[in-house]
Write a structure and sequence with these properties.
Elements (H helix, E strand, L loop, with lengths): L1 E5 L9 H5 L6 E4 L12 H12 L4 E6 L5 H5 L4 H17 L4 E5 L10 E5 L5 E5 L1 H5 L19 H11 L4 H22 L2 E5 L17 H10 L5 E6 H4 L7 H7 L4 E6 L1 E6 L2 E5 L10 H10 L5 E4 L17 H17 L1
Parallel strand pairs: 1-2, 1-12, 2-3, 3-4, 4-7, 7-8, 8-9, 9-12
Antiparallel strand pairs: 5-6, 6-11, 10-11
Helix pairs in contact: 4-7, 11-12
Bound molecules: D-mannose and manganese (II) ion.
Length: 342
């Protein structure tokens, strides 16, 4: 497996120099951040990012994410134009030598938490999700923003989009995903790009919006409907694992050969549909990271893997979940397990 680290570009307080010093760190997971969702990523911008990464003796091995325009998710008539743009971006990424592209299909909001800096018993803090609290949040109040959210929506637009989703069932959303894949996968095949869909986080419906990349059954379905090795998944332990009902090793089994990227993160279940993120240690979270990595290894996975979120420790501030220290500890912990397996 190729240990990798997410880097948010030049504005990231965590530098490539620092990342390079994490033991056995090889890949950088990043994106072009200054292009509006749906527009084509120009080759020059991708090349520039790649050169910056390579100048630090690291490899730009995964793009996370190329955002999918909302019209595609909603199945709006204008989706075909956005899909053409998506294909063009894939071609440009391929020209720059990128092989793995992570994306998600969550309506309107990306990952959601109720608290960004919830205390842990050891004095550090981490991201937390409490279903009760989230049910009382009003995303239309305009007061609520999370780091993974698209802030470009005005409240009015947001209301319209959220209303439009009222008539989109989960079955329909799945069909919209399949439509998208049927169009882009042939391009991915031609270009040698592996598509890796990230699960919904958390893997259940929030704010009344449909969500479909949530469990084994749905993953199997979407892999089967568009049955190409280039149509694969990002196996995110913390996202699938947020739901105690999810059979994580069953998902690995079902997606064997189609897992193109792994996010490793531990979570501690704190109630039904509630959890807090912890260190990667199997003693601190509810997920058995050792067993999962073993399962991935046995399933033949040898691709890029990154520590997903970390706690904020040693007084660190910055982008919640994306500090340097705990993600670096996580990478070292994961590498220890991986070295043992190999
Ligand atoms: C959260 C991340 C997600 C992820 C996207 C992938 O920290 O795991 O924001 O990057 O959902 O498309
Ligand atoms: Mn993830």
């Amino acid at each position: 497996m190729e240990m990798s680290f997410r880097w948010y570009g030049e504005d990231d307080p965590v530098t490539l120099e620092q990342i390079r010093q994490i033991p056995d760190m090889r890949g950088i997971v990043s994106a072009v951040y200054d292009i509006p969702a749906g527009e084509v990523w120009p080759l020059e911008k991708i090349e520039k990012l790649k050169q910056t990464v390579e100048a630090h003796d690291l490899k730009l091995n995964v793009i996370e994410s190329v955002p999918v325009h909302e019209d595609i998710k909603m199945g709006a008539p204008s989706r075909d134009g956005w899909i053409e743009n998506y294909k063009e971006t894939l071609r440009n990424l391929s020209r720059a030598g990128i092989r793995t592209v992570c994306y998600n299909f969550m309506p309107v909001f990306d990952w959601t938490r109720s608290e960004l800096g919830a205390p842990l018993p050891d004095g550090s803090n981490s991201l937390k999700y409490d279903e009760e609290t989230v049910q009382h949040l009003d995303p239309l109040s305009g007061e609520l923003t999370l780091p993974g959210w698209d802030l470009s929506y005005q409240t009015d637009d947001l209301r319209k989009i959220m209303d439009a989703y009222q008539s989109i069932s989960e079955e329909q959303l799945m069909e919209n995903l399949i439509y998208f894949l049927e169009q882009v996968v042939p391009t991915a095949e031609e270009e040698g790009v592996l598509l890796a869909i990230h699960p919904d986080d958390p893997p259940w419906s929030i704010f009344g919006l449909p969500r479909v990349v949530t469990n084994k059954e749905n993953v199997e379905y979407m892999l089967r409907r568009v049955d190409s090795p280039n149509n694969g998944i990002t196996f995110c332990t913390g996202s699938y694992g947020a739901d105690p009902e999810n059979d994580l090793s069953g998902i690995i089994e079902a997606a064997k050969g189609r897992i193109h990227f792994v996010h490793a993160r531990n979570v501690k279940w704190t109630g039904s549909r509630s959890f807090q993120e912890t260190s990667h240690s199997i003693k601190e979270g509810s997920l058995d990271m050792t067993a999962l990595l073993q399962k991935l290894h046995e399933a033949g996975f040898s691709g890029p893997i990154r520590p997903d979120h970390g706690r904020m420790i040693w007084g660190e501030t910055g982008r919640p979940g994306y500090g340097l220290y705990d993600r670096a500890l996580g990478a070292a912990y994961l590498n220890g397990i991986i070295d043992t397996l190999q």
